């Protein structure tokens, strides 16, 4: 039996979307709609799995499989959108979101390098080193927001790793006196994690990942991680550390930037030039729309006049 193709799955998806919309419009039977909904979800799941499998196969045939996955970063898959009535806001049907119709169409899926390595039977030991890097960033962050030396050492001892590594041997040597106790004066100025140690640990991660291309850890990659690795917590004073799984995605982003030689960039702001361009673009769109409406109105008037003349001639005859 021949395996189903992406094209065939897309066709089945189109048919089920139409079936759902027809049922919603004509009958609206809840149980039937649920069944169709499940079939649509199953098709999308099969489509995603097949497309990812094809991408993985293509990567394995390349000269540098892991680098191929990292540089590609993501792919878009088949999905659907909910359509709502403009006036009522109620669901009036589904609309296919077909990724073959444009670069921003479909659902964006991140390519996970650990998943690829696992399925391709490639080493994944680099994940332990990445977890150690996550730990270093935690300790660095704690120091920068005013944690005590005792708190920093407690975090260092309590953080779980399958291969536990003491990241603070140098720091301990700086702050612990001959009596084995923390010297408050020394602890005031000592830094548990320097940029140099972060760059060194990141380089260990790069060297451990099974990529043939040379990757070099730099200050900018560490800067990216420091800018993105944590979020605010539930309480005003809380800072939430990323899980190792989430942090691996950030690490993979640094690999992508290093391999593609792209520059990091902050988003969410607009320069004066960009704002001026956006305003000009909106004004142009408004002018084009007004011109189009004027043409439509002109055609409507001409049509009305023509119909009126035709009617007058008919009456006269």
Supply database-style keywords.
2 domains, mainly alpha, 317 residues, 9% strand, two-stranded antiparallel sheet
Number of helices: 12
Structural class: mainly alpha
Shape: elongated
Report the average pLDDT across residues: 86
Question: N-to-C SSE series?
Answer: HHHEEEEHHHHHHHEEHH
Share of residues in helices: 55-70%
Strand order of the largest sheet: 1-4
End-to-end separation: 72 Å
Q: Please tell me how large the radius of gyration is.
A: 30 Å
Strand content: 5-15%
Biggest sheet layout: 2 strands, antiparallel
What does this structure look like?
The structure is a single chain. With 317 residues, the protein is mainly alpha-helical. It folds into two domains: 6-110, no CATH class; 126-260, no CATH class. 62% of the residues lie in helices and 9% in strands. The protein has twelve helices and six strands. The strands form three sheets. It has a two-stranded antiparallel ribbon. A two-stranded antiparallel sheet has the order 2-3. The termini are far apart. The model has no long low-confidence stretch (mean pLDDT 86).
Strands, helices and their partners?
Blueprint: H1 6-26, H2 30-60, H3 65-72, E1 74-77, E2 79-84, E3 91-97, E4 107-110, H4 113-119, H5 126-144, H6 149-158, H7 169-175, H8 184-189, H9 195-208, H10 219-228, E5 230-232, E6 239-241, H11 244-260, H12 272-316
Antiparallel strand pairs: 1-4, 2-3, 5-6
